[in-house]
Amino acid sequence: MPALPAGPLAVPDNADTARPALVAGAGGFIGGHLVRTLRRQGREVRAVDVKPVDQWYQLVDGAETRTLDLSRREACEAAVDGVGEVYNLAADMGGMGFIENNRALCMLSVLINTHLLQASRDASVGRFFYASSACVYAAGKQTSPDVVPLVESDAYPAMPEDGYGWEKLFSERMCRHFAEDFGMETRVARFHNVYGPHGTYRGGREKAPAAMCRKVIEAVLDGTGEIEIWGDGEQTRSFMYVDDCIRGIQTIMAGPAVEPVNLGSAELVTINQLADVVEDIAGTRLRRRHRLDAPQGVRGRSSDNTLLRETYGWEPSTALRTGMARTYAWIAEELETEYQLVAV
Ligand code: NAD
Question: 170 partner at 20 to 30 Å CA-CA among 6, 123, 286, 336?
Answer without folding.
Answer: 123
